[in-house]
Specification:
Layout lengths: L4 E12 L2 E12 L3 E5 L6 H8 L7 E6 L4 H6 L3 E4 L13 H10 L10 H13 L15 H14 L4 E5 L7 H18 L2 E6 L2 H4 L5 E6 L1 E6 L1 H4 L2 H8 L3 E6 L6 E6 L3
Parallel strand pairs: 3-7, 3-8, 5-6, 6-7
Antiparallel strand pairs: 1-2, 1-4, 8-9, 10-11
């Protein structure tokens, strides 16, 4: 059981001009918790991550990250961030190891070299995600799933307490997605990380997360996935037309939840 909150949102409202992106968002995420923030496009999911990292300031409410403000937590190196794999160019010239090393250089002064400690952290991060044998390959030559593992290793090399991932499985096939989410569960259990995944795909993440938070400007639900699968919750969040396909842990059978006509 989680005994301490890593992330606390308290009645957070974020606006861009007259447009409201987040409204009265309250939510707590504990240590060693894997939570998915789900919702349609434009629901405020990425804004939520940016607010947590102190990149966007709320007009109302407060955010605490391990007791600090988001900006102070960012300065302490609390966060590891992984964006969408589709945003990276196939021609990216660095090796896999070089990509991971970028996190260590971010902690250095200008022209300061990596130490043996840095090299060990880089190697350990690659080993943790099962990519030490591919470290010299060009990042752009790796498969989508391998690249995503390297980006996770880069985040780990920053030695974070919290991992934030924005649509991390976009562009990955079903097998690569499952392998990727299994890696996140391993990191949560072995490293004690709080992991927040932004996703629009409820079915894909439902097997792996501890809790799911459904966001559309407000938090409409935050709890165990099974608790969300009521007709009332689904209708209030998605409307009358939805089809959710959820695989069981053996991927041999599935259950389908239908609301209205598809």
């Amino acid at each position: 059981m989680m005994t301490e909150n890593c992330i606390s949102f308290n009645n957070v409202t974020v606006k861009f001009g007259s447009a409201t992106a987040l409204k009265d968002v309250s939510m707590e995420i504990g240590r060693s918790e894997l939570v998915a923030i789900v919702g349609p496009n434009g629901a405020g999911k990425t804004t939520l991550l940016k607010a947590a990292m102190g990149l966007i300031k709320p007009v109302r409410g407060s955010i605490k990250i391990l007791g600090d403000s988001p900006a102070k937590a960012r300065d302490r190196g609390i966060f590891g961030y992984v964006g969408q794999i589709s945003l990276y160019d196939d021609r990216f010239p660095l090796s896999a190891k070089d990509v991971v090393a970028l996190s260590r250089y971010a902690k250095k002064k200008f022209l300061e070299r990596l130490t043996q400690k840095d090299e060990k952290i880089i190697y350990d991060s690659l080993e943790t995600v099962g990519m030490s044998g591919e470290s010299q390959k060009r990042f752009g030559d790796l498969s989508g799933g391998q690249r995503q593992r390297i980006l996770i290793a880069r985040a780990l090399a920053f030695e974070p307490k919290i991992l934030l991932l924005d649509e991390p499985s976009t562009g990955l096939d079903t097998v690569a997605q499952e392998t990727f989410y299994e890696l996140l569960v391993k990191l949560k259990n072995e490293k004690g990380l709080a992991i927040v995944i932004v996703s629009h795909d409820i079915g894909a993440v439902s097997r792996y997360v501890d809790t799911i938070a459904c966001l559309k400007e407000k938090i409409h639900f935050h709890g165990k996935f099974e608790g969300f699968l009521s007709d009332e919750n689904l209708k209030s969040f998605f409307g009358d037309k939805i089809n959710i396909l959820v695989h069981d842990e053996n991927c041999a059978t599935c259950k389908r939840k239908n609301i209205g006509n598809i």
